[in-house]
Amino acid sequence: MAIVLGEPGVDGLSEVVGVLREWQHDGAPMQLHPGDLGWFWRFGAEATAAAVRTWSRDGRILAVGLLDHPQLLRMTIAPDARRDEELARQLVEDMTEPGRGVLIEGKVSVEAPRCALVQDLLSENGWNADEPWTPLRRDFTEPVKDPGVRIEVIGPERAHVRTAIQRASFDGSTFTNERWHAMAAGLPYADARCLVAYDDQGNAVAAVTVWSAGPGKPGLLEPMGVHREHRGHGYGKAITVAAAAALQELGASSALVCTPSSNVGAVATYKSAGFQALPEVWDKYRDAQ
User: Fold this and answer.
1) Mean pLDDT score, 220-230
2) 21 vs 64: CA distance, rounded Å
3) How far apart are the first and last CA of the chain?
4) Could you tell me whether strands 254-260 and 60-69 are parallel, antiparallel, or unpaired per DSSP bridges?
5) Spatial contact of 161 and 169, defined as CB atoms under 8 Å apart
6) Hey, what's the torsion of the CAs at 270, 271, 276, 281, to 10 degrees?
7) pLDDT tens for residues 47-92?
């Protein structure tokens, strides 16, 4: 059967989220997670559907891609299809040719599981390794300890607290209350939590969103931020520990996060919260043609 490139539409997002949940397991390479779609959902269901690409054979989805922006495709592949040559060649063709409706002309990047055949074929076709990223993982063989600060689980009536921390943590953030509600209405948020940490004076100082892929599956931190006026006091570690505790409570088998290797402060924060660094990963990029 031929491999079919498609867009799921809003009605098809449930199937996409379902296969992404199914593909998550401890020991898998860092890959696209249901939480990545969940975080993108802040732009609405229609925008999320328009950013998703699927590759299917005989009605079964074999690969899923998310256009984080027009120049970056983040994708993953069914565990039993990562060395499927027909699929890998189709993926490379579709990602290389702008007319296929995946990536635009010019400099573009692809994130794919490092063990997948598509990585080798992209290299053979002139794609280069981009800046390294560091995945980190915390297992839940032991109970997660108390983070040592007051933690609030954010509901709809307190969304403004979560969004304010995001904007105070990331320059240029466009996370508004409206976008929080859009995210919370998305399918992946049924297995997610937003947490805010407070200092001794009652100031909101850090926030994180955690995404479970279901019981016995690794969960994801995306994103985590510390208010720019409250950095250097250990709140990044505290909110990260709280994130791990929330995922453990949701039944996750472990917690995952990924950050640019150049962000040494973030890497150190996650390690201080009990996460262990995994081998670095690289996106592949193609220069402007």
Assistant:
1) 98
2) 12
3) 32
4) unpaired
5) no
6) 60
7) 999 999 999 999 999 999 999 999 999 999 999 999 999 999 999 9
State the residue for tokens 């890998």: 88
Query: Where residue 1 falls among pLDDT bands split at 50, 70, 90?
Result: confident
pLDDT of 263 strictly over 70: yes
For 228, the token pair is 């720019």
Q: pTM above 0.85?
A: yes
Is residue 257 within 8 Å of 136, Cβ to Cβ? yes
DSSP code string of the chain: --EEEE--HHHHHHHHHHHHHHH--TTPPS---HHHHHHHGGG-HHHHHHHEEEEEETTEEEEEEEEEETTEEEEEE-GGGTT-HHHHHHHHHHHH-GGGSSS-SSSEEEE--TTSHHHHHHHHTT-EEEEEEEEEEEE-SSPPPP-SSEEEE--GGGHHHHHHHHHHHSTT----HHHHHHHHTSGGGGGEEEEEEE-TTS-EEEEEEEE--STTSEEEEEEEEE-GGGTTSSHHHHHHHHHHHHHHHTT-SEEEEEEETT-HHHHHHHHHTT-EEPPPEEEEEE---
Which is nearest to 119 in space by CA: 79, 80, 76? 76
